[in-house]
Write a structure and sequence with these properties.
This protein is of the alpha/beta class and about 450 residues long. It is about 50% helix and about 10% strand.
């Protein structure tokens, strides 16, 4: 259920995420501008004004609190001092409003994963890792309370696998390479969070699941294929919680509902409010289990009513207000709203139906039966395919006619994936020679 998680997270200023209400999470970025020493005063002013204006408007809307997600841009992670200074500027505004008005807000610090700028990526020996660790460490000390990342381990294999609709390579990228990379990354992020008294939030398979969704929306790959990528990505993202992350996970991979069903951690979700950055078939159904309700990166540009981030804050707040009113009205009302969120999307797209709460629980139940990550991924994918097939055959799901043969094709392809990692690696290495560096994944 939205607004409620088995293990809520309480921030240092007292926001309770997953403790009975939905909280807006505002995601924002710069307009087109170079980032260097000469332009950095203007960059500072952008971030200062975004947070100051949004909090002022949130107070006027009688908001109960806001999370600000600071997704760093390339230069802000390459030069950690830039990112740290911006965190401090924004956190000072949050603290000032807390002291003066009791208004609760926090910063989610999300350094970007620089390692993909090595080709092939150097996941464990990259020169970029030092800058990433420094930003996590000093940025959390400067006020970043929730630590997250959109990690990209395995993406060098996954991108081509998507374009070729190769489900076996997708599973290898996510459930072998991605899992191994997540273990390394999140053991370190959790240690940094503990050292600085902060929360290790969670990861997102945005570069995997959302890339598949966008390609499917453009008609480049089947929507059924993209739906299976989504459920497989959840197995990989669970590793952050296994390593000690406590949530809320990061929003833009949409695998959060599976994590919440399995682990009880609070989650952040985005839906219709992400249209500023990408289109999706998940506008309402994404809200079914959200504890934080977010948007995608919106540029700090002027709209007729005001600056775009403040506009989006208002829209997020009204959505959260409606969900919270339903929660106050009782279980039956909240369930009715959740059903409306689900029913308005689930019949129209294979990518939506797998996020319906009943199907999330069914798929999550298969994931936890897995004997290892590959087995869990196969069980999740097969269950997702079964749900799509049954719904289509019963007239409860629209599937483009051209995609119908993919149901049997994917079922057969899944049956050919070995569940033993050693056997799987032995089979895949000759096919992927030169496309990734095995030692960077401990292989």
């Amino acid at each position: 259920m939205f607004g409620n998680a088995l293990y809520p997270v309480t921030t240092r200023r007292g926001l309770i995420i997953g403790g009975g209400s939905v909280i807006p999470e505002l995601n924002f970025t710069l307009p087109t501008i170079s980032i260097n020493a000469e332009t950095f005063p203007a960059v500072r002013e952008h971030y200062r004004s975004i947070v100051a204006d949004a909090i002022e408007h949130a107070r006027g809307l009688h908001s109960n609190g806001v999370i600000f997600e600071f997704e760093t841009l390339l230069e802000m992670t390459q030069t950690p001092a830039y990112g740290v200074e911006l965190v401090k500027i924004m956190n000072d505004i949050c603290e000032d409003n807390y002291q003066k008005y009791g208004f609760k807000s926090e910063i989610r610090l999300t350094p970007n994963d620089l390692r993909e700028f090595d080709r092939p990526p150097l996941c464990r020996t990259s020169k970029y890792l030092e800058a990433m660790w420094e930003l996590f460490d000093k940025g959390s000390q400067a006020g970043g309370d929730l630590l997250s990342i959109e990690s990209t381990g395995g993406k060098e294999i996954h991108d081509e696998a998507l374009m070729m609709c190769d489900i076996k390579a997708v599973i290898f990228a996510l459930s072998v390479l991605g899992v191994r990379d997540m273990k390394m990354l999140w053991s370190n992020i959790v240690n940094i969070a503990h050292k600085n008294g902060r929360h290790a939030g969670g990861d997102t398979a945005c570069g995997f699941g959302n890339t598949a969704m966008v390609l499917a929306e453009k008609g480049f790959i089947p929507k059924i294929f993209a739906a299976l990528v989504r459920v497989i990505s959840a197995v990989r993202t669970l590793v952050a919680i296994e390593e000690g992350a406590v949530g809320p996970d990061k929003d833009c991979g949409y695998e959060g509902p599976f994590l919440k069903a399995i682990t009880g951690t609070p989650i952040s979700m985005e839906g219709k409010m992400s249209a500023c950055a990408h289109f999706s078939p998940l506008g309402n159904i994404a809200a079914c289990c959200a504890d934080l309700w977010s948007n995608e990166s919106v540029q700090n540009i002027k709209l007729l009513s005001g600056m775009a981030p403040t506009v989006y804050l208002e829209q997020l707040e009204y959505d959260a207000r409606l969900m919270n009113q339903a929660l106050k009205a009782g279980t039956s009302t909240a369930s009715m709203l959740q059903n409306l969120f689900s029913d308005s999307d689930r019949k129209l797209d294979p990518q939506a139906i797998i996020l319906a709460p009943d199907n999330v629980i069914a798929i999550a139940g298969e994931i936890v039966k897995g004997e290892n990550y590959i087995d869990a991924s196969l069980k999740a994918a097969n269950k997702g395919l079964e749900i799509i097939d049954d719904a289509f055959r019963s007239g409860q799901l629209l599937v483009p006619e051209i995609e119908v043969p993919w149901i049997d094709m994917l079922r057969e392809a899944l049956s050919e994936v070995p569940t033993d990692e050693s056997n799987f690696v032995e089979e895949m290495l000759p096919l992927l020679e030169g496309k990734f560096i095995p030692s960077e994944y401990g292989l």
